[in-house]
């Protein structure tokens, strides 16, 4: 690790490893405050796309997170010839996937799900306005803080976007295009799988899949025995709501999912439009529109 990083922070235990790097707990020597530091050895990345992503990740994470409460904040970046170290918020709660798993198949009540989806959509709307597409939105990338909001009698966790390791610049306003096959099979949009260029609406598809998982108790709309089979199902884009999972889910919630998990990118909602949908505005039916 760089001498400058060790000068400013005491490095603690390993918290996890990802496709690009390793994350450690760290403590500021100046304030004693705890953070997380993600370290990426760029010299070990053999793929051109991986090297590009590792190089731009800290810059895009800072751009997306500045003044954006729905994004895990970056506090410092240290770079040398081979390594990039990004110091960020230490998230102490479970990620959204773990939180859903703790429910043991019980669907998330609509007011709580609406609060979570609204938080993610709000964070993405600001990212997109600033020209950043996340490109790997999934429950594992949304860290739940201990702070919770009351919705219809049950607390909704505070969800924040984390890990901009697959992010891309799509131009101010989010109207530009990106390319490259990135993301996670169950959550990736069909236009990403198809190759060629695509826009920030790929993130909206992914949030729609997260919403589907919340309301179904963890089920996913597109499955398969292998990643190739999952991607083939994504390309077909046939969205179904099995009665055994969705009988109790409102028409408004299903309407929003259809508009988010829409295989035609031009017809899919933007993050801003998701926030204006009646199901979100009504708090999942908890209040009158």
TrEMBL record:
<feature type="domain" description="Protein kinase">
    <location>
        <begin position="9"/>
        <end position="280"/>
    </location>
</feature>
<dbReference type="GO" id="GO:0004674">
    <property type="term" value="F:protein serine/threonine kinase activity"/>
</dbReference>
<feature type="binding site">
    <location>
        <position position="38"/>
    </location>
    <ligand>
        <name>ATP</name>
    </ligand>
</feature>
<dbReference type="Pfam" id="PF00069">
    <property type="entry name" value="Pkinase"/>
</dbReference>
<keyword id="KW-0808">Transferase</keyword>
<feature type="region of interest" description="Disordered">
    <location>
        <begin position="132"/>
        <end position="157"/>
    </location>
</feature>
<keyword id="KW-0547">Nucleotide-binding</keyword>
<dbReference type="GO" id="GO:0005524">
    <property type="term" value="F:ATP binding"/>
</dbReference>
<keyword id="KW-0418">Kinase</keyword>
<dbReference type="InterPro" id="IPR050205">
    <property type="entry name" value="CDPK_Ser/Thr_kinases"/>
</dbReference>
<dbReference type="InterPro" id="IPR000719">
    <property type="entry name" value="Prot_kinase_dom"/>
</dbReference>
<keyword id="KW-0723">Serine/threonine-protein kinase</keyword>
<dbReference type="InterPro" id="IPR011009">
    <property type="entry name" value="Kinase-like_dom_sf"/>
</dbReference>
<feature type="compositionally biased region" description="Acidic residues">
    <location>
        <begin position="139"/>
        <end position="152"/>
    </location>
</feature>
<dbReference type="InterPro" id="IPR017441">
    <property type="entry name" value="Protein_kinase_ATP_BS"/>
</dbReference>
<keyword id="KW-0067">ATP-binding</keyword>
<protein>
    <recommendedName>
        <fullName>Protein kinase domain-containing protein</fullName>
    </recommendedName>
</protein>
């Amino acid at each position: 690790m760089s001498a400058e990083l060790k000068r400013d922070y005491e490095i603690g235990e390993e918290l996890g490893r990802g496709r690009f790097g390793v994350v450690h707990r760290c403590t500021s020597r100046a304030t004693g405050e705890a953070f997380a530091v993600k370290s990426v050895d760029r010299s070990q990345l053999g793929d051109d796309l991986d090297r590009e992503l590792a190089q731009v990740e800290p810059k895009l994470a800072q751009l997306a997170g500045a003044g954006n409460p729905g994004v895990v904040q970056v506090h410092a970046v240290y770079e040398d010839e081979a390594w990039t170290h990004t110091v960020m918020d230490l998230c102490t709660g479970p990620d959204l996937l773990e939180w859903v798993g703790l429910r043991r198949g019980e669907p998330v009540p609509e007011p709580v799900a609406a609060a979570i989806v609204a938080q993610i959509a709000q964070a993405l709307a600001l990212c997109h306005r600033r020209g950043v597409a996340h490109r790997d939105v999934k429950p594992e990338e949304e860290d739940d803080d201990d702070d919770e909001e009351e919705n219809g009698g049950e607390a909704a966790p505070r969800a924040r976007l984390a890990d901009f390791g697959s992010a891309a610049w799509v131009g101010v306003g989010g109207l530009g295009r990106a390319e490259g096959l990135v993301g996670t099979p169950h959550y990736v949009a069909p236009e990403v799988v198809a190759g060629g260029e695509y826009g920030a609406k790929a993130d909206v598809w992914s949030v729609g899949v997260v919403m589907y998982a919340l309301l179904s108790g963890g089920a996913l709309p597109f499955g398969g025995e292998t990643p190739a089979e999952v991607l083939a199902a994504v390309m077909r884009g046939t969205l179904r709501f099995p009665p055994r999972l969705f009988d109790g889910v409102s028409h408004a919630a299903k309407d929003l999912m259809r508009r988010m998990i829409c295989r035609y990118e031009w017809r899919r909602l933007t993050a801003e439009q998701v926030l204006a949908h009646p199901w979100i505005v009504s708090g999942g039916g908890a209040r009158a529109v």
